[in-house]
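Q: How would the structure tokens look for this protein?
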Amino acid sequence: MAGIKVLFQIACLCAGTFAAFQPREHITRLLSTKDGLGTFLNPAAVVKPRYRYWLPDASVKPEYVAQDIAELGARGAGGIQFLNYYNYGGSSGSAATDWNVYGYGTSAYREVLKAALQAHKDNALVMDFSMGPQSGQGVPAEPDNPGLAWDLVSYNATILNGSYSGPLPGWERGDLVSALTFAVYNATNKTDASGPQSQRNYTEYIISAKSLTEVTDLVQKDGSITTTVDSVEGAQYYLLYASYAQRSYARACVASSSHPENILQNGSFAVDHFSETGARVTTKFLEDYILIDGIKELMMDVGNYIWEDSVEIPSYTYWTPALPELFENEHNYSIMKYLPLLAGNEGYISTPGGPVQFITDSNETDSGVIADFRSTLSIGLSDYLQNLTGWTQQFLGLQFSQQVGYNMPVDMLQLIPDVDAPETETLAFSNRIDGYRQFCGPANLAGKSVISIELGADIIRTYIQTWSDILSEANRAFVAGVNQMSIHGATYSHDYANTTWPGYTSFQYLFAGQHSRHQPAWDVGYKQVNDYLARVQFVLQSGTPRVDVVFWDKQTAQNPSIPSLYQSDDLVHKGYTYTYLSPENFDLDAAYVENGVLAPSRQQFKALIIRENDTMTVDGVEHLKTYAKAGLPIVLSGGLPYAYASSEDDSVEKSRETLKGLLSLDNVHQVPVDTFPDVLGSIGIEPRTQIDGDGTWYTTWTEFPNSDVYVFIYNEGSDSKGNITFATAGTPYLLNPWTGDQAPILEYSSTDGKTTIPFALKSNETRIVQFDHSQEAKASVHVIPSQEPMLGFVVDESSGGAWAKLALIEGLTSLALSSGKEIELPTRQQLSPSFSLSNWSVTVEQWLPPSDLFDVETIANKSNVTTTVSGPELSSWSDLNLTDSSGVGYYTSSFAWSSTTNDSGAYLVAPPVQQPIVGFLNDKELPPMDISNPTVDVTPFLVDGANTVTLKTASTLWDTLLPIWSDLLTGGDAPVISAGAIGYGLSQNGIFGQVQIVPYQLVKVR
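A: Here is the predicted structure in token form.
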């Protein structure tokens, strides 16, 4: 039964893994798909994954930075995301060197930056540049600069006996914005205990909306005020409330001197993110201090993106001096008397919130005003982003990228189109596919060719994160529409002040990944994994994504944890793809309906879904009316939505009537809650990829300019099999992103312009299928899918001949061809069974600390330990009593092979592994193997007689670091969490299970 046991694993290769002869016309067409991106086999540097590179400070040796970059490039990276870390602006440890000399913007800094740029040029790479220290949210500037970040702060005083005469509370604490009086019904001390680190103790005031009265004009030049209030029934007391605009002086980097002599020694301040003025503070500093001495020219030569991380400016209420004017221009009323409503948490919403919160006795007033304020902030942030985008294009000829909108009280989806390359992240999005869908919808609608992600920022996974972890995260992002990985992160790998081996480690050892030459897998799979990512990215960046349906998603303030908005997997199991759009995105040029399809030049949505708990907008409903009359199917789930992001009561009421009136249209369907697959099917909307299988398979559909269709498939669940029916014809090909091979698929069925292909997928395994539309699907004979997919096919392109690779399959006696002919297959007696390799020699090259723990130049203190395994079952290094340390494992076995048998060739099949696996047969390196299903056709490497197999796989560095965790230092700072508190213990390293050889015979099918 050994042959049957392993069949499912290698059948995952679907209809054809490697063709003996590649179709040259197909390869030529694929090579020329899009200028500048390279080819599927060899993607250009700009397409390859980049690594976020943490520069400790400018005390490092420029030549060592250049060496780190060159080594990353040699292992398949396209370059780095150059981040001026500086201990995360000083918030993650104190300076270990003199930042007066080595700070951001100094001549020493420019020397390091120039070396990094030159290294990219020398190695044909591209570089993204963080436009400031820490997250890039600020730069050195004079403290009185009007473009620094602003807060709205407030002070109040109790009004006694109906009148107040005295100093305005808070006078001279900032620029006065407004003064108000109002009645307070009651005040309650409250605790929001959503978590121990986010507990909020605050006072909640219930106030009278009608009593809100602006008295700013009564404030005298000396700050005194005399005012009275009218009595309000039920009021307990009255307040005089003053609001001021203050520069927050939020730090992007701490000062390097207590008595700074210039702006560089005073660190960096966060800039105003809600105005062009704030953007110009950054760009002027870059022009004056960074992009000089030949750096601008190098940046224009090898630069890719000017980049900013997620905005993390602490504030209870964000502000910009022009906000009152912007607000009134947009909403036709003044914000001034409603400022108390903003005191809760209209700033950095990843923090618990302020010490006070005001709520009026009119909930609709509160929600409408707050929505209007957030809308105005969104406009201000849009101005900031568009200014930076324009400057980057005009001054440098590059593009601007930012992690847009989350952490802030703004509509993230509205703002995503304002940058050239919007970036998401695994941390804030909790690696949720649905969250990535929310991010990608607006970007795709706006025609962004690149949507990047900060990949792998996993907390408390330092030095223990595996490549299996990273690839799982990448694949989840890919299927949502993300198409560029920026891996978190690479680190300066050489000596640094008061730093122990294995070198500089960011965030006080709190986050993954710390990629460098000190990782045992550095030369055991990094190149293969980066090549995989690059090839997937090449496909996804080269075309236009098509999506089946779109959900309405209006968020006035983006939840910082990005929850899943549609939690059912019913659409996924049927094969539907979906994404999200804010109604603000309907103003984009591509957001029109043609022939009943929304965004015909972009995603080509077949239907729009709105749910009863959605937040509507007045303008959005007008767009709905236009779309519905143009024939777009609209599905309203449950009751009609009631919530509106507006304070315009009359307009909202008219909008509700408009929405209700749409129900009379034949293409508008009001349905029970969450019955979408059935409803969509009943109105004739089918998925582009109809899935009939026993797993959880995600697909993403990309159409190239030449009309070829590429579908990326990802199995998130357990091992599974089934069929996918693609809503397209054309000649199908299988693209292997691990090897770069392209092979025709010869096992499929086609009817009515659709193509059905069988798949068997291991957990976390992926596929890329291409449909070549340069010609109709070839009339040449192909195999009709059977119960078990073939292992693969060999095609002679010159003669058109084709042979199926047949292994021992229980019950399969013949193959049906599209011509109607049946081919008898060899009997069980004629087929060789698979067999497991045994008598293993297992050697682990241990990677141990150097004798001097401060010797970072040494990669590792390496020593070998060896054991033998007589049977076929392999287990972890610790179970084999080899080592409890990290390192590289070498597995060697042999088997006999004879060319005189009926066998035409063989596959080598290893168990899934956590880290990349590199194979050799008879001292010749095998093609790269997918770590989720390490399977490779070894026929070209076989010799008569004894054949020697060697497999290499590496561990993480965790096990070696565990015993010395408390001795580690970065810049003098120890790990912020002890090894015991982390609690992982030793890893299970190596290959677990059996490695098998699966012989096959070639059976001619045409």
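Residues 1-34 have pLDDT under 50 and may be disordered.

The two ends are 30 Å apart (CA to CA).

Upvote if useful.
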